[in-house]
Structures are given as structure tokens and as C-alpha cells.
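ENTRY TYPE: protein
CONTENTS: sequence, C-alpha cells:
***
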Amino acid sequence: MIEYLICFFISMVPLIELRVAVPFGLTRGLDPLILYPICIVGNMLPVPVIFFFARKVLEWGKDKKVIGKFFTFCLEKGHKGGEKLQSKAGRGLYWALFLFVGIPVPGTGAWTGTLAASILDMDFKKSVIAVIAGVVLAGIIMGLGTAGVLTILGIGG
């Protein structure tokens, strides 16, 4: 039970999120039918807070002595993510957000996607749907990779 709780908390950590929690749990033999919902909930729990408050907190703290550099980094990451989404997506902005979150490359998880959606003033409900779908996709991809399916198919390393 404690390992499921660890996976829940790993899923909440920025930058590593469910992308680390799923492989961590699967390599410890945890039941995927229990693990996935726990990791998805853990990954999504911060999303409303990020959407409604992160930008305000980051803007407030970007010029503070101790936290300024980190807050500026987070804002720049969100801005770059938002600009990239908007320039490539056009009218398919929510599909782009889904893919941005769902394809598990560093720095494109629920935290960054939600921050980008907030910076772009995207609709909250549509953004959450796109982010949760992306989180599910990322979890599936990470699970398949961890299980060796991608290697068997000749896609992975």
C-alpha cells in the first residue's frame, strides 16, 4: 500500500509526474489497474491550482531575491510552451494541448501544459479535459515502454 502512496506523490511532482510514477510502480510489480488511476489522480490534483493561481504567484515572485530565478524559469517555460502550442495548433489548440501533455518528453507534462493553458487564457474545462486525456496517453506510453512492448515491436531501445 505504501508504494501506491509513493507513486501518488511522485505523480504530483513537477517535471517527473506520472511519467516516472508509472514505471516506478510497474517495476515494483504493482497492479496496473490500481496504479494507473492513482497516478492519474495524483498528476491531475495540482491542475486547478496551477491553472488559477500559478501564473499569479510566479508573476509576483519573479523579481524576488531567493525565488526569482526559479519563478522566472517557470514563467518562461510556460510562455514558450504556450507559444509553441499556439503557433503549431491554430484552431486545434486543445488537440495540441492534449498531444503536448500526452507525448512524454521532458518538460511537457500536466504542469507545463496547464501553465501554458493559463497563460494563453484557454477555457478551464476544455483545458482540463485535454490535460487529463494527455496524462492518460502519457501513462499508457510509459507503461508500454516499461513493459517492454515498444522494444518487442522494435520501436524502443
